Amino acid sequence: MQVEIKVPPAGESVTEATVSQIFKENGSYVKMDEELLELETEKVNQVVYAPSAGTLILSVKVDDIVTVDQVIGQIDTDAKAPLDAPEDTSAQAKAPEEAPASEKTKEPTSEPKAPPPEPPAQVPSQEEVTLRVSKEEAIQNLKTPVSKAPKAIPETQEKQEGRETRKRLSKLRKTIASKLVEAKSKTAMLTTFNQVDMSQIIDLRKNEQEVFVEKHGVKLGFMSFFVKACALALKKYPDINAYLDENEIVYRNYLDIGVAVGSEKGLFVPVLRDCDNLSFAAIEQNLKDLALRAREGKITVDEMQGGGFTISNGGVYGSLLSTPIINYPQSGILGMHAIEKRAVVVDDQIVIRPMMYLALSYDHRVVDGKTSIEFLVHIKNMLEDPRRFLLDL
Predict the structure, then answer these.
(1) Second-level CATH architecture of 176-391
(2) Annotation says 216 is catalytic
(3) N or C terminus of the chain with fewer C-beta within 10 Å?
(4) 276 catalytic residue (yes or no)
(5) Taking residues 349-354, what's their average pLDDT?
(6) Could you tell me where the DSSP H helices lie in 223-297?
(7) Which one of 337, 368, 378, 392 is the catalytic residue?
């Protein structure tokens, strides 16, 4: 029976994809749910799995453009005999070696004196000698090109002589590039800065980390504090959670926050839904799962849609200060940065504190400067005094 392999749906707005990688050769035997190939879309990469076990028959190759629900191959489920054939042939491969022995056993029965003269015969030993000599010559022939490596040098020189290297732009990278340009061209983007003393949160994590992990099975990170602080601040300043639609400002009645995750394939922004109703543990568990699947390329398009605000943490890469770009059509994005000990004034005393610079980029068409500053100060105050989370201050 022929089982069709179809291009799976990758989201409402995704209609086509590009074959970026093929993991299994055409004509090879595959198991059910084994990875066959990877499809690249403008939003996310998706792996196609074998719908059943059998022989793979692909009708596409790398860089081919395919559409959703298109048949790109079949699995021949009846072709199980060829799978067992190699095992039988391997067993049969040993049989011919034993066959001469059986024939020899038959010969002694007809001629009982034939076996004795065979051991003293020196012909096999000479053959072994010649085989050894040929093997040694073959080994020497194999070693000589490796030692000389005449072809390797020109190849490396050709690569070194080239001053440019061209690489095909992936659909995901194209989408990221167009979104960034769109955000710069369609918004009146400004950035306001502040700094936050992370002492209280650091002490809280240090004192309660063991109990938190034991109870929830996940570490208490910094991001959950920022997500909760942003959620509460968005409730107080709804303009940051709004967007401009032609002649109307649309206010979101939900608090879905995207958290930027970097990967080798590009930037993913999975969205945490209804963050105002999530506990710290739920935020950490969801973040861990989304970040892992985003880096593995297993995250879905639906999990990256619908966010009203974004948090980007450049501090994990060592960034001290930056101006994050709005995730259009959103109106705001918060940039976190590296925590560094700096000299600050507290109660007229110069002290050393772990400080982090915060950056809020916003669309000035929707958000006034006063609102953006108060929004960032509200986040700063909550992070510097975590008791505010309980009192919703």
Answers:
(1) 2-Layer Sandwich (3.30)
(2) no
(3) N
(4) no
(5) 96
(6) 223-236, 280-295
(7) 368
